[in-house]
Amino acid sequence: MDITFLLNGETVELADVSPTTTALDWLREARGLTGTKEGCNEGDCGACTVIVTDADGAKALNACILFLPQLHGKAVRTVEGISGPEGQLHPVQQAMIDFHGSQCGFCTPGFIASMACAHLNGETAHDDALAGNLCRCTGYAPIVRAAEAAEAAPVPDWMRDDVPTASGYPALPQDGDELATWYLAHPDGTLIGGATDVGLWVTKGLRDLGEVAFLHGCRDLQRIEAGAGGTRIGAACTMTQVWDWARDRHPAYAEMIRRYGSVQVRNAATIGGNIANGSPIGDNPPALIALGADLHLRKGDGRRVIALEDFFLDYGQQDRAAGEFVEAVSVPRGQDALRCYKLSKRFDQDISAVCGCFNVTVEDGMVTGARIAFGGMAGVPKRASAVETALLGQPWTEATVAAALPAFAEDFTPLSDMRASAAYRLSAAQGLLQRYFAERSGQTATVLEVAP
Amino acid sequence: MSVARPLPHDAAPLHVTGAARYVDDIPAPRGCLHLAFGCAEIAHGAITVMDLDAVRAAPGVIAVLTAGDLPFANDVSPSAHDEPMLATDAVFYLGQPVFLVIATSHLAARKAARLGRLTYDARPALLSIDDALAASSRFEEGPRIYEKGDTAAAIAGAAHVLDGRIEIGAQEHFYLEGQAALALPQEGGDMIVHSSTQHPTEIQHKVGEALGIPMHGVRVEVRRMGGGFGGKESQGNALAVACAVAARVTGRPCRMRYDRDDDFTITGKRHDFRIDYRVGFDGDGRVAGVEFIQYARCGWAQDLSLPVADRAMLHADNAYHLPTARIESHRLKTHTQSATAFRGFGGPQGMVGIERVMDHIAHHLGRDPLAVRQANFYASGGDISGQKKPQTTPYGMPVEDFILHEMTEALVERSDYAARRAAIADWNAANPILKKGIALTPVKFGISFTLTHLNQAGALVHVYQDGSIHLNHGGTEMGQGLFQKVAQVAADRFGVPLEAVKITATDTGKVPNTSATAASSGSDLNGMAVKAACDEIRDRMAACLAELHQADPADVVFRDGRVAIGGAEMPFAEAAGLVYQNRVSLSATGFYKTPKVKWDRIKGEGRPFFYFAYGAAVTEVVIDTLTGENRILRADILHDCGTSLNPALDIGQIEGGYVQGAGWLTTEELVWDDTGRLRTHAPSTYKIPACSDRPDIFNVALWDGANREETIYRSKAVGEPPFMLGISAFLALSDAVAACGPAYPALDAPATAERVLMAVQKVRA
To answer: Counting CB atoms within 10 angstroms of each CB, which of A4, A147, A364, B10 has the fewest?
Structure first.
């Protein structure tokens, strides 16, 4: 593939790049820009964070799972380009020195990139902005002090990148039609949205992907549109877009997305990818199933719509034909009583052991509707049908909830793995229903809401 | 004065601009090759067939080496000669390196390494403490036992007796920079090695053995590590030796770095422990006697497990006077990664044992655990009249410098402990689902290598004729700020600004026979060695200048970048030039050995430590009784650094140590499956604290007091001790669980949401 992008303000044109060369390897090995570090090579530590600017603005991304073609038509800024052309320190760099934010220094370039990007975008929720950057030395306190100290400083002029113009080609389709054509012709090919999952097939699985198409040029698949029946979310929307959309409309879903991956991961990961890969521990499906979402699939010019929950047939098996791709997910309009609960070893940037999403409709004290879906409890994202049945038509009381708890064992036979035991999963899932009842009764029932 | 100032890390401007160079950032020399290990896929068995044809045929592969191809020693152990770099005829853990791929790129080497087809005759694998005990698989002939008094009789005669057990999980270092090395072949068979290591001399030694050349043929350089935490004390040997051997075989520079998953799978971690205890005490909770049985899971090779297990025994008392004690230590050999050094080096595990005992006693008596702790504290040392003899540890060392009574009282006041404890009880009464907990735990940590001969250090200092100073010593920089602290010492000795001192990479060619930068000893040892070297040069300068000016050398003053000799005064640079012209050497080595330490590790008697470092922390947490989710709300810390060499760097060690210690005991869970495969082998599955896991309120202060022992500027070591402040988070969780029901929580570590939920359900049952 031939690609072009800006690197620290300078135009780079590359011919015949291997589509699965990572930006990190290229920066370090081909360009000798060794400031950007490899810490984990799977997008979980943030040591490789770089700033990528496209038409939507500047985003922090993990360079270790970012393939070179994903940079086509964008501007990249590495830690070396966060200092000014005359070597002037960026305000976050100066603050990190002044507040002792670096010890061993290895994670520091990634922190600088995340902090400079947040600073550029006026973000001051530092814990969220830095959730994807691990530091093993400092305990983070001095880093957050530095980020706070730099908040008010003006953005240096060298930080504002223009986006270069670049044209597309078949493996870089520019809309859903081109993608549909390409995928029909390459039904065994791999579609790459944000590469937060596929990236690991390459960096960890050491797989040769064969034919690939990148979706980031398909602007029409990156739209969130309100229609009469509800909201249609394009499959190539990043989780950052979904988060922005959900904040006002579905705050509980938004709060879960806040903990989903990290800034770097949400900026790359697409909602379509999270659904299409069929993972039993993806966090979007339970929330969307609880909201009653539909899935829009396309193959060539043919389209069909199914209930999202029907997409997941069995572990590793989805209702998707060769050459067919997820085009969008739609969420019905209307009020909901959604709550999303994500249980993991660590609050931020962790894969759920259990993800429980509840949407119970109560009218005149009686349960008239219940959509309860779980991740991590079965081989697929799955509704808790027996629990729903136990609640439906009953008064919405603690006694009803208690009586419904045994039904979890009918719905789920979870596995034990490194994230949690089967016993814990079942017990905690029951606890989540109790939490849902308590929260709807006005109690504080999550530790994240407790202030010291 | 350059000492005692809160200066930033010397490399901070390089860190923040990406200019700080780590081993893998050194530009690859022309023709550089890259290495990867092919590793065992089972935990224990004989290798019957090793089919490496596909590996050799893979793109970019230059050569593939097995044990039989190694020219000289096949050993990367720190001392016991039980750790072949490449497995010979059998494998002893899943992940053990078996063959070495030499290829044209890192990726080509990794891809080829997966193509090996190994066939095994599998043997039973001992994975757990129970497995090893059942098979009596252990290092040393039997358990090591330290005893003080007649413990059994004391317990039998006590008003109250409790027994219990705690399981304490292991911990992965997760240094952000993985293991890495680069070997550059030199003329005549010599080798230069760049290694991310805490122990350059050991790298030099092991590379020399592997190449069949004396140590003088190997020069090891370490500018910095991207974190070490003990994980680079011995675990870098394999990569450095592999690079050196491959460089010898190919005649080309060779470099190697572990991919993160390989790093997790191949290298050792903190030892996981089981501790059984039995304690007798009175109605106030005062201990009459305690028996501990410590089981350490050491893995397949000895590595540093014996001194680690020793240090766990040596910290079984923590801050408490135990009139009688019996500590039995089992060092168990299992078919897992060889557990290794990790910040605290066994001390944290030993300390968790006694802190659990204090917590259990308090629960049994219905007293505030803090009151029980204070009742058991060692008596204050430092009774100048000599009337009162200091109390002694279970290993017979008098505790002369005990300051925790005063520190605890100060912390109780600063943290508003009593009022908050009462407020938490009220809050818990009003909240059926969420419960808060609070705990104050102390730290008393022994400072010195317990292998006494390691308590030595060297330095090399040059003053150039322009007055600039070249500083070198045997310590390594892993982020702790050692280089800056030592540079502050050097600048102070010469009375020059810090900018006059050039910090240089650790280099076995400059300072020989160094000890690992470990045991928190870096600035204590190297600071003193540098001071000796600087003072030697300064004294020579003073003598020369005094003679020139017919003054007394004692009246020559080095201050503010100038030198005053009687009535005359000149810039330091001019003085250096003058001394040079008068043909006086401006280069000196410095040497230091720690005084007073002497002990018998077999009997467990004597003075293993020069002094103790102290600290105390109060942590408040909240738990969810429906899911076990939990988090830290607030931490208040008071820590003893003696007279701090650099308060900013010391506070950095304390904040970072606390969070790392709390991580060990909460979210960081290593899980091996039934086949011995480590299932948590990357940050996706192994969860160190993230940004939002630090306490919402995080108050850290330094205790104001000089070290009573004569250390460098009366400072105290700070690397490891604050790690154990994190124990307060664990016991705060125990306190919160205890609010849920009458039974004792007996929480195991790490206290994941799952373990907390199980404990809640248990106390309610």
So the answer is: A364
Would you state the structure tokens that stand for residue A314, as one six-digit string?
A: 């069995």
Interface test with B, best of A26, A196, A345 (most B CBs within 10 A): A345
Q: How far apart are CA A422 and CA B173, in angstroms?
A: 28
How many residues in total does chain B contain?
Answer: 765
List of residues 6+ apart from B352 with CB closer than 8 A: B166, B168, B273, B275, B665, B727, B730, B749
pLDDT digits (tens, 9 = 90+) for A265-310: 999 999 999 999 999 999 999 999 999 999 999 999 999 999 999 9
B271 contacts: CB under 8 Å, gap ≥ 6: B170, B296, B297, B298, B305, B308, B309, B312, B339, B342, B346, B349
Residue among A78, A93, A105 whose CB faces B479 most closely: A105
Per the CB < 8 A criterion, the answer to whether B200 and B193 are in contact is: no
Are A42 and B682 in contact (CB < 8 Å)?
yes
Nearest Cα neighbor of B712 from B485, B504, B502, B540 is B485
CB contact under 8 A, B690 and A103: no
Determine whether the interchain pair A136/B630 forms a contact, defined as Cβ–Cβ distance below 8 Å. Answer: no
Determine the angle formed by the axes of helices B727-738 and B647-665, rounding to 10 degrees.
40
- Strands B469-473, B456-463: pairing is antiparallel
This model's pTM is above 0.90? yes
Evaluated on CA atoms B734, B739, B745, B749, the torsion sign reads negative
Which tens digits make up the pLDDT trace of B509-539?
999 999 999 999 999 999 999 999 999 999 9
Angle at B139 between CA B138 and CA B140, to 5 degrees: 115
DSSP state for residue A161 in the 8-state scheme: P
Question: Touching check for A167 and chain B: CB below 8 Å?
Answer: no
Q: How far is CA B155 from CA B144, B149, B315, B322, B362, in A?
A: 21, 11, 20, 12, 17
